[in-house]
Each structure stands twice: as structure tokens, then as C-alpha cells.
Amino acid sequence: MAKMLWLNWSGGGNLPPSLGIARALTERGHSVTFAGRPEMVPRVLAAGFRAIELAKSYAQLDRYPAAPTARMACYLTSPAVADEIRETIDSERPDVLLIDAMFPAALEAASEYDLPSAVFFHHFLFRLREQWNATGARLNGMREQAGFGSLPPFEELWQRHDRIIVTALAQFDTPADSRWTQVRHAGPVLEDESCAVPITIPWDANAQAPLVLLSFSTAPEQRSAEKLQRSLDALADLPVHVIATTGGIVTPAELSVPDNAAVVPYAAHDPILQKASLLITHGGHGTLMRALKYGVPSIVMPGLAHDQAPNAQMLQDWGAGIALSGDADAGAIRGAAQTILSNASFTRTARQLSTALAGVDGAANAAGEIESTLLTNTHAGGHHAQRT
Prior knowledge:
It is built from 14 helices and 13 strands. By secondary structure, the protein is α/β, with parallel strands linked by helices.
């Protein structure tokens, strides 16, 4: 049995697949402990795993420039967090380190140890390479404005580690760069958190009206009651039934809910998507892959995360959805919904794409790659230094 420490960024699309992989590792006899910001802790505990709160997550927040993403940047890049990560590794003495690709402070600190390590992408890697680099530059820029020295670029940090595990299908990513020999595509990990419980659909099972799932990000940084309201208003006069999930960051009481809709904080999406004709979403990788698994086309209204707009365009290029702007008005949303629901080609294409996802167990595949990293115990380029 191996002792594993997961240095985690608990973004909306990052923590659920991390928990899914941890579950697969636990089933194989390993132990997994998560370390991350305070917001992460209750979600990890609810999933049945041990969680370490990084108490210094926002200790240096007052030095970062005022911006909606300041808390995120402070947690992901600040020297105080990096120091606490080193203290955590020293005290935990894990056999292997698992690090989120979005966490530069952890990526750098972890590379100082002579331990097997794997970096996790819960989005596409090569398809989003330009966006990844731009995000790294923005985070570094905010760190520099806080008065701290620059961290190495994302790509340099990632390649310091033994495996780069991408929880996406290789055939949906763009062709790999042959120089990236550590990269493995495991496939999507479509894990539900404990709060995502099955709900009773409040309409007759034989109802003829198409079912629409409306679901945006669960990340507090992307909270938008206004976007949810615009979408509900857009569908209010259409002959559809709507289930909207608010992800716990918007309360149902904040919304004016039309007669053809039901709004809940959380719901398991799989049972809904099995019956749905359309998804309206922010374009996170996991949500889109879950919809494609069931052959459901999407309308994508991107939020802040760097993968969402490219994902929207990808889906539109494939013919399995329509990309709108994040601030699209109710008329544009209504028109896109009418286009998809009246044109069978969108569903036909989504169902064709679903065949690539059939039988893929991304969690098991990723767990196997981690075991390979641990058992071979070889460090790429021999660059890991023993920290004293």
C-alpha cells in the first residue's frame, strides 16, 4: 500500500475527478490524503477522504491586486502557501505526490523532493495549450504585483514531474507534442460529489415536452444568478420542461422560476441527462463529457475558466452544440434552444461522439498510471533534488 498526498485546487471541475481517482486508488489498497484551501475540506471529508487544510491559503491576500480572482491567485501562487506545502510534505512523508496542474506554488515546491510525482489536467492539454500558458502568465503577473518573484512558466513546472495525466480522451484533444513523453490520456472521470443526489423529476414520465438541464459552474468565483435567470426566462415560453441546478453558489430563492421549471441546489446529472434533449451550461470539461456520454447536445455560455470558451467552440465545430457568449441575452438563448430542439442533426452528432466514451473508466486508467509512476520510481530527467 502506498501513502499518497494530493496537492489540490478545488475548482468546480477539478475536485470531482480528483475524488474519483482517489476512490479508485483506495479500492486498490492505497491511502490518499488531500491538502488544499479551506473551501476544499468539507467536500473532501464528505467523500470519505482525509483532508488537510492549508491554513495560510489567504495569508498574503492583502498584497495581491484587487480583482475577482485575487483569492484564487493568492492560494495558487503565494510563497506562504508554498512554505506550508513544504511543511505538509515534510510532516506527512508520502510515498508519492499528486499535484493539480493549476497549482504553480505546489508544482514548484513538490519538485524539490525526491519522490515520484504526477500532475493532473482535468481538461484538455494540447487543445488548450495556448490558454494554459496565458493563465499561467496571468497568475504570475498577479504574484509579481504582490511583490513576489516570478515562478517558472507552467510548462516548465509540469515537465519537472514524472507523469502528466490528462483526464480527457486523446482523440478529443489535439495531436500530442511528441516531446511530452510523460503525458498519458486516461479519459474523463465523471465522478459525482456526495451532494449530487438523485431527484424526482416533477413531471409525468410520459410527458411529451423535451427535458432541458440547466447547469452552470459550482465554483464560487463563477457565481452568476443573473446568467441563471436569463436562461430560465429564455425557456419560460417554450414547450419544454427545465431542471436547473444552482451548484450551491446561488440559492433557488434568488431566482424567479417559471411554471415549466424546477430549481434545486444540487442533483445527480446522469439520471437527468439520460432523459434530456438539451443541456445549457458553462462549458466545463466534465459537464460536457457527461452530456456527450448520453448523446445530449449543448448550448454553452462560458464563464471565467480558460477552457470554457474553447470547449464551446469545439462543440459547435463538431456540430453537437451552439456556442454563445457568457452574457447572451434571453432572446439569443431561446433562439439557440429552438434551433437545437428542431434540428435532429445536433442530437445525431452528439450520439455519434458518445461512442468514443463508451466503456471508458478514466479513474481506473489514471490510478493505473499513478501505480506505474510509483512502482517504476523513475524521475524524468533526474531533476528532483532531495530536500533537507
